Amino acid sequence: MASICAPEPGGRGRQPLVLAICCLSVLLAGLDTTILNVALPGIRQDLNSSVTGLQWTLDAYTIVLAALLTSAGSAADRLGRKRVFRLGLMLFTVGSTLCSFAPTTAWLVAFRAVQAAGGSMLTPVAMAILTHAFPHPRERARAIGTWGTVVGLSMAAGPVLGGLLVQWAGWRSVFWVNVPIGLAALLLTTLHIPESRAPHPRRPDPVGQILVTVLLGTLTYALIEAPGAGWTSPPVVAGLIAAAGALAWLVPYESRRDEPLIDPRLFRSAPFSGATATAVFAFAALSGFLFANTLYLQGDLGLSPLGAGLRLLPMAALSLLCPPLSGRIVGSRGPRVPLLIAGAGIASSGVLAALVTRFAHPSPLLLSLAYALFGLGFGFVNAPVTATAVAGLPSTQAGVAASIAATSRQVGAALGIAVIGAAAATGARSAAWWAITGCGLAVLALAAVTARRAATTAAPPPTKSSPTSPGPGPAPVRRAGPVREGA
Fold this sequence. Notes:
globular; disordered N terminus; 18 helices; Growth Hormone, Chain: A; mainly alpha
């Protein structure tokens, strides 16, 4: 990633404001991750949505977000970070407003895509703005730590806040809450965020962008529609063929580019590939877990939206408390131990949920334990994923690696809603819990193989755009300092 411009003179006085504005933006994106799940039964009843429609309501956001994250960061480096950040806030706020007035499920899905286009410009650009505003490493680490705490807080508060809003004012209110936050962040950005650009930004890659979007969209379409239409139905087969064709074109095309959107050569690094796959499995488990629990708690058990949100508090609390501890362990002992804890927590949660939910009147204590185990596992996963993603790569490629790791999280979320949501939709709730267990076991296996090899795996050959990168010879990796959530 290209170096950023130097901060403006006298910019230290506005650092707290810049941090607050970036935290507001990530509050928007973080709340949207968990707050909407509690509202799904209300959407289903009010808009007469099918379960497939609910899956698309969630996946329209995650697919667009995953497809645009890397391009949004590059566009901000090229066009100006303040400009792109403001555009993202405007799109997210407008999209949230439109979602709140959606008359049908199809319109809601379309408006969620608008919301996601704005959301893709928030998190990566906010990180670049923070890096520009806090040039000194120690100050930057504290700022990123605060920023990461807001990420955890937003995810923890989402189910309870969503339950309160839905019970008090209906499902549309979960989108209303974004509007005042978005407008406040937009006004403060206009007044207080300095403009910055990268001196040597990456060139656009429109063909790569189209191929990535087609790959994610058609694959997700096939996975969501297959349980109802059948795997041999023409639309599903066409979706799978289109996804395979996009992937077959994407890899050689990106390999030939000087500045690719996604460089396939990065995946020659075992730690990087392992971190990417770990993020996919972990976030597939999260999105599937939230979706399946929404249908279970409010559908099977008949709980109110607030009651369902309160039941998820053990998961939310540990998702908030564990990341700082995970970061400290990564800094002192490396990523393997936190990843093993993450995989064990997610897998054991799926097993316990599969056993407990078989009963008509499940034990509230055992359900809370299942949710706590999931929160424990998920709370330990993010810091080591980020650290492992860059462990076997030259420092010049760290920014690209972090961007791809962020994209893989959204890809996992989309696939989790498609696959685990499909299992939950067919009434085979136990299949959903066992799929979550499988995701946890995959995280365990990847931790045992790729995290152990992180210190001995050679970095991939330098890309054409990075002639100064180290060659493919052995590259010992220094142990990183403490990693904070949200970095």
